[in-house]
Amino acid sequence: MSVFDLHKEDSERLVRKLIDIEIQWLNSHLPHQRKTIDELLQEDPPYYVTVRGEHSYISHSDVENVATLLPPELRPHVRFPIVVLRDLSKGEGTLVVSGSDHDRRFVAALLEIPYRGDGELIVYWPEVQKLANLLGGLLCIGFRVSREEPR
After folding, report:
1. Residue 44, SS3?
2. pLDDT digits (tens, 9 = 90+) for 88-135
3. Range of the structural domain that residue 35 is part of
4. What CA–CA distances, in Å, run from 97 to 82, 88, 141?
5. How many domains does the chain have?
6. How much is the pTM?
7. Can you point out the beta strands (E) in 88-151?
């Protein structure tokens, strides 16, 4: 290994670290801790705390609307806001639903798309737009960087 290779590795590490810091800043609006629909229904006004530590308020009508969409068996398990992450390694226009298996099952049911319960649920921009219309302020979009090569 030459001295040039060491410098190249150092600069690649530095660039990765800078990207990670930038992604953290871009995602600072995401929830630090998510809540069930029943917890949100009890709050006046409903809100969640962001990674940045700020309160992000949600309209009562959004919470009440989503409560009608949520099947009773998922009610104690699905946490809001639903988080969808843009990941360039998955391909252009592709996003991944973050959260628990219950969260992914709920999103798949809303979008009327299959979900096998095998972990990752991939959605596309038109589906995210539909989610935004259905969930309103109970949907957050963030970013993640995988170390995979883009497809």
Report:
1. coil
2. 788 888 999 999 999 999 999 999 999 988 788 999 999 999 999 999
3. 3-144
4. 8, 14, 9
5. 1
6. 0.84
7. 94-97, 121-124, 139-144
